[in-house]
Amino acid sequence: MKRKFIPIIALVAVAAISISVGLVLLLGQNQKPKGPSFSEGFDFAEVEGGWAVVDYAGTDVEVVIPEKYNGKPVVSIGTAGYRANGTQDGFYANDKIVTVHVPDSVTTIWKMAFSECENLIEVTGCKNVRTVGDSAFANCSKLKKAALGNKLEVLGESAFSNCQSLETVSLPNTVKRVASSAFFRCNALNMTVEKGVKFVGNAKNPHLVALLAESSEITTAVIPDSTKIISDLAFMLCTKLTTVSVGSGVEFVGKDAFITCNNLTYRTVNGVNYLGNDKNPCVIAMGVAQGAEKAVALSDDCRILYNGFTLGLTETLTIGKSLLYVPEKTLGTNALTAFAVSEQNAALKAIDGVLYTKDGKTLLAYPSQKEDASFTVGGEVTTIAAHAFLDANNLSSLTISQSVTTIEAGAFLNAVRLTEVVFTVPTGWVCVTGGTESPLPESIVANTSLIAIKLITDYQNAYARH
């Protein structure tokens, strides 16, 4: 009978050892993530949705980033933060790495995450990356190839600037914004140059993004129907530019794309100046013409409102059926008292003169001269957009209902008369800086005057309620 107990005792001992080892591994600060052939030596920070890689001290030159850490996905490379020594986090200035594989779990490569990696040659993976931040790969002088995946939406300022060995890049059709400086001094990069414009794109559509002017001396430029994006500052300093044909396929025009183009000729329709083409002269609304009426209606064919759009003395702006969005800070200080939107517009709507997304979930813009002293953000609204209440000159009291869970950065910037903000749910709010969160004490949120001051002066941080 004794022999029957020996295996049981041994089994218990093995189980105890296994549990002990398991606990040691679980509690270890540098636990190696599960998975095949992952590199070691990462430091992680917990962010919304999972983990961010904030440093790499390993010895591998061919680095494989894990898809999970401590049971949660690795969702970003870098954050908006810094290391203890003051340098940007991520892989910043790592002069040892040669290749990096970014797993499918990663959706964001943050600002300067790989900047100054002087021996980096290739980045693979990036299948689900949606945002590549400012200067993410800047000054990677040996970088030849960088996979950008099929879900990329934003390519930030100077993202690949001074990558002098970068030869080819393929941007997916999902891209929504590409800064004109994204490929600054990428002298080896093969771009399509036609009719005064340099384009980047992919094999099927080489004209996807109008990146920048061929030179500052051009007088005419043609952007074809196949172009989806005109980059930020694309035609900056083109002071001799007089004529631009803009294709009907353009969906986004970057900030100040035509700044200093003071000699441009427009087509004026019903008091509004436009850029467009022969078939649709009203693709981009550039501003209200001098001497226009106080009530102005955009053409139903207008797809885009330029970020430098000038309203003059316009008090009521009616948006036609085709406008896709309103850029941040476009409609700040002005005489505007109300928005109106065509019922046929699939993206936008107006309620009591305030502009919302069609589903009512995002408050986009509150007219700066709307007469009401008080306003309640409620109904279906979950998000108050960046700069939504910019320069709201008459608003003194605001109530934010329980439906609201997100306040984007700078939402109340310069609403200087706002002295009272009431949160119907003052608990659970956090301040969001980049990818990191810090609790916002209820003592601040519940103090109606204190939170008002914080909101109208804070242009960098967003707020969220969990």
List keywords for this structure.
466 residues, mainly beta, eight-stranded mixed sheet, 37 strands, 9% helix, flat
Describe the protein.
There is one protein chain. The chain has 466 residues and is mainly beta. It contains 3 helices and 37 strands. Strands 1, 2, 4, 5, 7, 9, 11 and 12 form an 8-stranded mixed sheet that branches. Strand 13 and strand 14 (197-200) form a beta hairpin. The longest helix is centred in the first third of the chain and has 26 residues, at 2-27. The relative contact order is 0.06. Residues 1-36 have low confidence and may be disordered.
Rounded mean pLDDT is 88
As a percent range, the share of strand residues is 25-35%
The count of helical stretches stands at: 3
Give the CA-based shape: flat
Number of strands: 37
Radius of gyration: 26 Å
Structural class: mainly beta
Helix content bin? under 10%
Concise structural overview:
The chain is mostly beta strands.
Write the layout of secondary structure elements.
Blueprint: H1 2-27, E1 42-47, E2 50-56, E3 62-64, E4 68-69, E5 72-77, E6 99-102, E7 108-109, E8 122-125, E9 131-132, E10 145-146, E11 154-155, E12 177-178, E13 192-194, E14 197-200, E15 209-213, E16 220-223, E17 229-230, E18 243-246, E19 252-253, E20 267-269, E21 272-275, E22 284-288, E23 295-297, E24 304-310, E25 316-319, E26 338-341, E27 348-351, E28 354-357, E29 362-365, E30 374-377, E31 383-384, E32 397-400, E33 406-407, E34 420-423, E35 429-433, E36 436-439, H2 442-445, H3 448-457, E37 462-465
Parallel strand pairs: 2-5, 3-6, 5-7, 6-8, 7-9, 8-10, 9-11, 11-12, 15-17, 16-18, 17-19, 22-24, 23-25, 25-26, 29-31, 30-32, 31-33, 32-34
Antiparallel strand pairs: 1-2, 4-5, 13-14, 14-15, 20-21, 21-22, 27-28, 28-29, 33-37, 35-36, 35-37
